[in-house]
């Protein structure tokens, strides 16, 4: 009797009935709406934007937030949803997590009541799409060096700058933009920017070889004039954007495991039916050794993610622990995807199977929301007490 790659340790009892139901519901959504179409979306580089309203109807957008139409689900439930979404495609999970963990979370955590009422209900329903503008062409891992500037002009703010690699940018109705203030002692501030504001544009980034089933854009702000109450009032400095990134990294810790599981399930099914030298590929020792090692890392990664989720639900999660989860689980997921490709041989490079698509996507996941090197240094600083960032 065979067992699935995430069934060896019998972890179902570690999840509540509600958590299992949410995971099952998202898996069914992915099976129905993502799997049959995602290879085509990836090939043409265009996602189905109707997924946002459907995800909103399921309560997936900002699902771990409370009020304003948000589901108020547990952190573990959110993580399990990310796992199932990324089992479909990292780009689909990115669309959902950028909406909820970056754009919505910034407003929910740091916005005024007027800002929350104006934006969050529509975003939770998927009727309004949000993006998060922090990374710049020359400042990714060092956001403190950002060149975007916001200056006061009477009661208004005027913003100039460029942001890069922004998921949902070209299709968003609202952008959360972080900028250095030039005449305000509070330094970096966040701004709620309606994307129809004059001077704002978001050209789509093309020729991507990764995350092709999601929209990636540049944000250009040229004398974008905003009213004084467009600023997020409850945060100053890098604490704001970095805490938002920590929310997204938590989801990735679960999400990457979904891509790895899908690769491993695909490789297992292929190895059972592909005959080599007169017997199934799955019957060879080297194949079984690969499968065993990958199943081991997948299950270890899940236990790590689940532990972090329980800490988060208990309000005891340290951002450095999220760095550990993101570093390990994305790195291992990418290793699993590459190893699964070897089991499929030449078939593994075709769009008929999801493995190389997942591997290409995970190359981006390895980099965004903090590169592996940045997370290594976060962990290194925690262990040694010395900062190696500068």
Automatic annotation (TrEMBL):
The keyword Ribonucleoprotein does not apply. Keywords: FAD, Flavoprotein, Oxidoreductase, Transit peptide. Residues 16-127 form the Acyl-CoA dehydrogenase/oxidase N-terminal domain. InterPro entries: Acyl-CoA_Oxase/DH_mid-dom, Acyl-CoA_Oxase/DH_mid-dom_sf, AcylCo_DH-like_C, AcylCo_DH/oxidase_C, AcylCoA_DH/ox_N, AcylCoA_DH/ox_N_sf, AcylCoA_DH/oxidase_NM_dom_sf, Glutaryl-CoA_DH_mitochondrial. The keyword Repeat does not apply. It is an enzyme of class 1 (oxidoreductase). One of its GO terms (biological process) is fatty-acyl-CoA biosynthetic process. Residues 131-224 form the Acyl-CoA oxidase/dehydrogenase middle domain. Its EC number is 1.3.8.6. Residues 237-383 form the Acyl-CoA dehydrogenase/oxidase C-terminal domain. Its cofactor is FAD. GO terms for molecular function: fatty-acyl-CoA binding; flavin adenine dinucleotide binding; glutaryl-CoA dehydrogenase activity. PANTHER family: GLUTARYL-COA DEHYDROGENASE, MITOCHONDRIAL. Belongs to the acyl-CoA dehydrogenase family. This is Glutaryl-CoA dehydrogenase. It comes from Microlunatus parietis. The lineage of its organism: Bacteria, Bacillati, Actinomycetota, Actinomycetes, Propionibacteriales.
């Amino acid at each position: 009797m065979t067992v699935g790659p995430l069934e060896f340790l019998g972890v179902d009892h570690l999840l509540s009935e509600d958590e299992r139901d949410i995971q099952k519901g998202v898996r069914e959504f992915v099976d129905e709406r993502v799997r049959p179409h995602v290879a085509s979306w990836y090939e043409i580089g265009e996602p189905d934007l109707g997924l946002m309203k459907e995800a909103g109807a399921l309560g997936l957008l900002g699902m771990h937030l409370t009020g304003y139409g948000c589901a108020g689900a547990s952190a573990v439930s959110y993580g399990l949803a990310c796992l199932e979404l990324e089992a479909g495609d990292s780009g689909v999970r990115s669309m959902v997590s950028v909406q909820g963990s970056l754009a919505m979370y910034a407003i929910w955590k740091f916005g005024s009541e007027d800002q929350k009422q104006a934006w969050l209900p529509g975003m939770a329903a998927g009727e309004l799409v949000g993006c998060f503008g922090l990374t710049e062409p020359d400042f990714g891992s060092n956001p403190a060096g950002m060149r975007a500037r916001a200056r006061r002009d009477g009661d208004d703010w005027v913003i100039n700058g460029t942001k890069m690699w922004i998921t949902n940018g070209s299709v968003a109705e609202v952008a959360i933009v972080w900028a250095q203030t030039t005449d305000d002692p509070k330094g970096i501030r966040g701004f709620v920017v309606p994307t129809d504001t004059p001077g704002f544009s978001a050209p789509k980034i093309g020729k991507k070889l990764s995350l092709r089933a999601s929209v990636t854009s540049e944000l250009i702000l040229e004398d974008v004039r905003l009213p004084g109450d467009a600023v997020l009032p409850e945060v100053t400095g890098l604490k704001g954007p970095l805490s938002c990134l920590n929310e997204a990294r938590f989801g990735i810790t679960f999400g990457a495991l979904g891509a790895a599981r899908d690769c491993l399930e695909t490789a297992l099914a292929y190895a059972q039916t592909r005959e080599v030298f007169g017997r199934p590929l799955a019957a060879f020792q080297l194949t079984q050794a690969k499968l065993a090692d990958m199943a081991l890392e997948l299950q270890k990664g899940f236990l790590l993610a689940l532990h972090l989720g329980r800490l988060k639900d208990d309000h005891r999660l340290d951002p450095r622990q999220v760095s550990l989860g993101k570093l390990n689980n994305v790195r291992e997921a990418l290793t699993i995807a590459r190893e699964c490709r070897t089991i499929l041989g030449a078939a593994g490079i075709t769009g008929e199977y999801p493995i190389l698509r997942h591997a290409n996507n995970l190359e981006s996941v390895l980099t965004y929301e903090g590169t592996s090197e940045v997370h290594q240094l976060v962990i290194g600083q925690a262990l040694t007490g010395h900062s190696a960032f500068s």
